[in-house]
Structure formats: structure tokens, C-alpha cells
Here is the input.
Amino acid sequence: MSSSESAVAAKAPLPILQLVDVYKRFNDFNAVSGISLNILDGEFLTVVGPSGSGKTTLLRMLAGMEAPSDGNITLRGELINNVPAKERPTCLVFQSLALFPHKTVGENIEFPLKVKNIPPAQRKARALELLQMLRLPESYYAKNVMKCSGGEKQRVALARAFAYDPDVLLFDEPLSALDYKLKKVLEKELKDLHRQSGKTFVYITHSLEEAMVMSDRIAVMRAGKIVQIGTPETIYANPEDEFVAEFFGEVNKFSVSLNEEWGWFSQDTESSLTLRLPTDWPGSEQATVIVRPEYMRFATSAHEFDNVISGTVFNEYSLGSRIQYQVRCGNKSVLVEIPRTLARNAAPDEQVMIGWNAADAFVAEA
Amino acid sequence: MRSQAKIRAEFFVRCWAGFVLLFIYLPIVCSALAGLSKSRYFIFPVRQFSLEWWKRTVASFEVQTLVQNSLTVALLVTFISVVLAFFGALAFARYDWRGRQLYQKLLLLPIFFPQAVLGLALLLWMNALGITPSWRTAVVAHLVWIVPVVTLVIAIQVYSYDAQLEEAAVDLGAGRLFIFKEITLPLLWPGIWSGALFAFLLSWGNFPLSLYTAGADSTVPKWLYSKMVAGYTPMVPALGTMSTLSAAGFLLLGGAVIAFIRRRREK
Here is the structure.
């Protein structure tokens, strides 16, 4: 985690927003409990977490819509705990988008400019520029915003946020209501826009996929705290614990205890298999070994991989470009995911051997 | 078979609708006819039609004063009740505060209170305070009953209003007044307008409250009643018809304004 953070920091050394031990209490409930976080200037930071993990509250504190109950938030070194949203160089794109329904596309985009008393001609010129930047036709300027499609509304909301010209753009799951295909397109556009504008993006979502596609760094939140923060690769490959691992996709878990023979361990409860240990064993006697389905392979011999176990094919799920097999090994169910090009025509109840290399597994303390 | 049943059903629906309309409008039409009769007394069927009583009504100084009183009261009531109700509706539909539920219920209560009793109570209260009843006190009396109604009408609009829009506007740098002018008012405007229509018509047609609280000043409904009790002339149905027609015209105009704004917005 620390190595990846310093790698990003080398590119953009200045934190634009700093949170130090920030708490937010609602009555007796800690929505955010003790978050310290540096948001770097120009980065795309995604905060992921299950609903109720406090990510929206965190975002609202950054926007100035909630004040922290405890701790400090600084912007470029200046304390902004009680600076209202109106006076912050941040702009929040709401989940509902919050477009003004009685205004046209153009009037929506021009709103922050109208606030600043910029003359109409200049406003219009800027709005047209933004329409172009967000790949909306110029004719949309006079269009009723409620007559736009979901994706178009998304772009209008982005254009409005850009018209405000904030240093930090905050996103509260704006893509969650869109269909899969459009979401994929907009994810990429958003990432392009981030690069093009050089602004800092803080994005919250509960979708792992969105986070992986777009972010420079991902922060995983649970119960008001940040569990892990790092690049998508780090978090995917080296999750801090079972929660993070499971949040980032399906996993095979083996709960194990250390064997006397160094370098090996055995599965304790379910099938008492003897498995080879990954090198980053935490030192405790009890732990969970986690292997992602895509690191599992079908084996032809018992020595093809560090670990090979046998079982029977129970079910087959097609995931489009990949296929997942559910293999029963004793009373344990293991998922194997392979590219479609390597698909095997496994008959139900067929005896198979599956395996993985110790280096592809990771260990979480039990 | 089926389509025949459908045709029959449609026939009965039409008959029923026609019957309801007839039931509602027959008395109105009859009184309109009474105002068009040449004779001084109301005899049915009307033997000879004439516009004489309409002319006399329009020309009557007394009627002019009445209409002026009624209009003044109705316009004042409309203005005051819309202002009070708008903020009241915002208060209970938008914000969560302790006692909100109670406020909502207390607000509704006057609507169900018999107006005649309310009028009498207000009169006694004014007596106790030493205030001489006039059209001004009638305004106060009308407000007691109309403000809750208008609050409910506007609240319906406020409930469908997304408060996040204001939050977004603040985030984009806008101040309170700017937001009120640019976001809140335009979005709640249809509700305010229907509230105003309600307020005007309820005040214009109100009799029981005016009877007790307008004192020596007379309003259109009050005059109609007093003339029916004693001193009937066909000016009564004539003025009644005019009053109904102008209220209808007022409603149509109000509806047209809303339709116009909607169309402009949807363009």
C-alpha cells in the first residue's frame, strides 16, 4: 500500500484536499469515524464501499454540505471545515443529477455563470464550448432538459459542473441508474475528461467495475473507515483483508492453519487438503488463503501447479468472454474461471483436477 | 357479444354523466332564466324574456359597491393567504422539525369547523376586542378559513419538489435570493397559482363568514341572501348568474395561463 501511494505521489506531489482524523456523527451514529486521507491534485480517486459505509457522507463533507463533527479538512493547506458549499472550489454531481427541470440544456449549463453575473453572450459561448466538449450537438442548447435521454442528462450535468470551473469535481454514483452499455461508454468518457481537464476527481460508487476502470487510486470504505487505499492493481492483487478481497470480485477461500513443516500448510476444517503457502504468510497460525477464480486452472497432472486438487464439475456458468466452472472438491465448492477460448467441454459430474500457483494466492489473517 | 356489452356500458356511462351534469346545472340554469324574466316575480315557466334586470343590475350603484367590496376582500385575501400559505407549505412539506405533524393537523382543523359557528365566534372575539366589523374584518375572517386550504394546495406542489435542486444551486455558488428567484419560485409557481385561484374563488363566494364579520359592509353573497329573505327582485338571480359566470371566466383564464406556461416550458 505504501509503495503504491508514493508512486502516485511522485507524479503529483501536492495534496489538494487533506483530511485529518475526520468524524461525522448523526445523533449516536458515526457515519464517518476517523478518516485521514490525502487527495492529490489532479488525481482520480474513487471511494468504494457497500451502502451505508459512509462514502456519501464523506463526499458531502468535501463538498461543504455537511461539516465534520471532529477532525480537520484542509484545501491547499487552508482549513475549510466550516466553509459553505457555495464558497468552495468543489462541485458535486449528484446521483439524481439535480438538473433544473424548468430550464433548457443551455440555461442549466449557464447557471453557475449567471450566478457570477457574466453577460449573456459570453455565457452562451462558454455553454456551446462545453456542449462540444461533452459531445452534445449545439442544437441541444435550446432543448428542454427533461426531454434528454439518461446519458445526455449525464453530460449536461457534467457540463454544468465544468461551467462552475471547480478545482475538485465530486461524483455521487452518477452512473448508477444507467444501463450497462451506456455506463461503459460514460466511464471511459469520464476518464478521458479527467485527463483532458487535469482537475481532481473524487468519485464514489459501490461498483467495483466502475472503480477499476476509471481510478488512479481506490479507497475502500467500510463502517465509516477506510480499510485500504491504493492503485486498482494493488487492491485487486493484494487486498488487505477478506472484506476487500470479496468486495473486489469472487474468491475461493481456504481457512487454514500452519503445518509444522515450513512452507506448507493444511486446510483445517473442510477437506484437510495440504496446500502450498504463498510467501507473504502473516505469521499467525490461523489464516484465510484466497485465490481468485481466474487464477484457477484445470490441471492435467498433479505436478502442473504448486497446488492441485481433484473434484467433480458441478456447474458451468457463461460470463460472456469467460466461463466459470463450479467444481466440488469433497464438501468444498471451488470456482474456476477461464477464457472462453480455453473452454473445456466438461460434462456434469466429470472428474477433474484443478490447480493454482502459490504466488497467485494471497493470505488474509483470520 | 363483448363489444355489445361495451357499447351498452358506454351508453350507461354517458347517461350517468349527463344526469349528473343536469342535476348540478338545472338550478343554475333556472336562476339564470329567472334573471332574464321581464316580470318582477319568479314565475315558471318564464312568460317573457328581457335583459332589463341585467341592465338594472349593472347600472345599480348598490351592486357596484357590493362588487367592489367583494373584489377588494377577495384580492386582499388572495394576496395575504398565498404569502402565508407559501411559507407555511414550505415549512411543513420541506423541513423536518419537531411538531411538524401537529402543525399539519392543527392547520387542517379550521377547514372542518362549521363556518357559521366560526363566523359567530370571530364576531364575538372582535366585539371583545372592541373592533367594529367591516369589510376589513371580513378579510381576517376569510383568511382564517382560506389560508389552510391554500396551504394544502401549495403543499402538494412542494411535496413533488426536489430539495436537492437547491442544494445543487448552492454548490454552484448561488445565494438564497438568487435560488429563490431562479429555482424555487418558478418550480412552485403552478401550485402558487392554483392556490391563488382557490383563495380568490373561496373568498368571492363566501357567505357565512361575511354574514357575521363584514358588519355594515355588504358583499355579493351577503346581499343575495338578504334580498332573498326580504325584497326579492330579479336582480338577485341576475347578479348570481353574473357572479357565477365571472368566476367561471376567472377559472378558465387561470387554467389558460397555466396551460400556456406549461407549453412554453415543454418546448
Observations:
- Confidence is low (pLDDT under 50) at residues 1-10 of chain A.
